[in-house]
Amino acid sequence: MPVIRRLPEALVNRIAAGEVVERPAAALKEIVENAIDSGAGEIAVALTDGGLDSIEVIDDGCGMLPEEIALALERHATSKLPVDLVGEEGAIEQVATLGFRGEALPSIASVARLTIESRPAEAAQGWKRVTDHGETLSEGPAALPPGTRIRVEDVFARVPARRKFLRTPRSEYMACHDVMRRLAMARPDVGFRFSNDGRRIFAVQAGEMLETRVSRLVARELADNAVSIDCTRGPLDAPIRLTGIAGLPTYNRGVADHQYLFVNGRPVKDRLLTGAVRGAYADMLARDRHAVLALFLTVPPSEVDVNVHPAKTEVRFRDAAAVRSLIVGGLRDALSAGDRRSAQQPSAQAMAAWQAEPVAPMGGALPLTLREQRPMFAAHPAGRMQHSPSQDSFRAMESAILEPSARAEEAEAQAPDADEFPMGAARGQIAETYIVAEAADGLVIVDQHAAHERLTLERLRAAGADTGVSRAQALLMPEVVEMDESDCDRIESAADRLAGLGLAVERFGPDAVLVRSLPAALSGANCQALMQDIADDIANNGEALLLGEKLDLVLATMACHGSVRAGRRLSVAEMNALLREMERTPRSGQCNHGRPTWVKLSMNDVEKLFGRK
């Protein structure tokens, strides 16, 4: 018969450490969070060999007395709970810090060599304590300025089973870099210095604006391709606030690694929040592209549980639907107000593609490639310029330019003044696909299909808000959909909300639901697949929002097929009407797939192309 016995203290600590210290980056996160909670204004972090050899964190915070250092290395000792709440029921919900001292330190000390040096500002000297894999080696006075210096060396040196699963120094360094970047974003009021193997990775000053700090840590061009967010929802005494910076849909990445999410100043990687971001950008990005953003959610401590995950990277909200609604609504409102902009500058690669054509010597012929070119620029409402079928195509082109046709003069007479409108006045059409307009500050090129696709989608969406695009269409024969009992329970709990979207369902036994109607825009949908997707979405997010996103995708498909296609000739009046509607329509800076609908060449760029500057 198996004998139940207590494990040795050292083994208990190493088992507990496995939940907190998975790799050097996890230890770094805990120590830097401690430094932040100590009130530090400057924090310096130095790695050796990506953290595998050593991690050193120096802060100028409040410091610790000798007896506090000893207590911080005991399990279940903390200063994160207010003194008057310790021992009271519900006290854990009042946690407002990242975790000060004593939580992770004993775990780190049990799997590495840990040196702590600390000195409070009022103390004459500091104190040093060295622990090696759970054993105290030495302690005594130390000379250092006010603050704390912690050094972690040889992580898992005596735990080979864990050591062999660590990755290369480069991989561990990248994980540490991500941790430092997120913590530095969370606290723009604190200065950070981060280096690896003696090479400075970044240094940011305390007191920076949030947008400045995020742009410096993610990408400098983000500041010019993003909108700021600041919205609040909920009661005045306990509001939920969302702030941050969100990249335009045209400024996107192929992976979601550049989405930084924070709850009460704590970096998190939460499925609810990432799902809300995906929903907000659903009709503005292609499926394989991801937004670049940093969002900071401030929630009353009693409304969020931060102790769901040992590393505290996941959270649980009391009202998850309200949080998701705030994020989706806040992002969409901000992008609607600010994303009439497209990509701020054409890419360097695109600019480099402009080439100066060779100049023929006096009296000589142009190269064959240029002589055979056919102009594609239409500067009049009826069609392209007319070309002479003469073999001398260059002379025909020259004649057309120097002697404009009556149609071109008519177009010029119809065009508005370029200074009157932000996107200027249409001057012509290239390849029956791109509109060229002259604005007061440069040259605007518009992709006519991408632009009209966005305008059509916004019209459909507005019409749906007024007349009910998602109105119900009753099925001739109600369809029975068999599902797991738990999925049926989820569908039944969301039946009222689904009915508001045009999807009428009711329970049909323990493991089936009856679908009586579908939204008109989804009349041909596969009921089995649709219901399973909705049940999965409720399981993942606690809210049936996937149906609304499916309707948006249907509307986007309708908009694509109902838009002006590439290859269609437009009159100048039609071009200018398109430009004016783009100026009035939210999210007109990008099509439904996240591509830019227009770009602008400033006059400086144009003059550089011709060597004038």
Topology, element by element:
Layout: H1 9-20, H2 24-37, E1 42-48, E2 54-59, H3 66-72, H4 105-111, E3 113-119, E4 126-132, E5 135-142, E6 147-153, H5 160-163, H6 169-186, E7 191-196, E8 199-204, H7 210-218, E9 226-233, E10 240-247, E11 252-253, E12 259-263, E13 266-268, H8 271-280, E14 290-291, E15 293-298, E16 304-305, E17 316-317, H9 320-338, H10 348-352, H11 368-371, E18 377-378, H12 393-402, H13 406-414, E19 425-430, E20 434-439, E21 442-447, H14 448-467, E22 472-482, H15 485-493, H16 495-500, E23 504-507, E24 512-519, H17 527-541, H18 546-561, H19 572-584, E25 598-602, H20 603-609
Parallel strand pairs: 1-7, 12-15
Antiparallel strand pairs: 1-2, 2-6, 3-4, 3-6, 4-5, 7-8, 9-10, 10-15, 11-14, 12-13, 16-17, 18-19, 19-20, 20-21, 21-25, 22-24, 23-24
Describe the protein.
The chain is an alpha+beta fold and 613 residues long. It has 3 domains: 187 residues, 2-Layer Sandwich (Heat Shock Protein 90), CATH 3.30.565.10; 116 residues, 2-Layer Sandwich (Ribosomal Protein S5, domain 2); 201 residues, MutL, C-terminal domain, regulatory subdomain (Ribosomal Protein S8, Chain: A, domain 1, 2-Layer Sandwich), CATH 3.30.1370.100. 35% of the residues lie in helices and 23% in strands. The chain has an 8-stranded mixed beta sheet with strand order 5-4-3-6-2-1-7-8, covered by helices on one side. Strands 9-10-15-12-13 form a 5-stranded mixed beta sheet, with helices on both faces. A 5-stranded antiparallel beta sheet has the order 18-19-20-21-25. Helix 1 packs across helix 4. The longest helix has 20 residues.
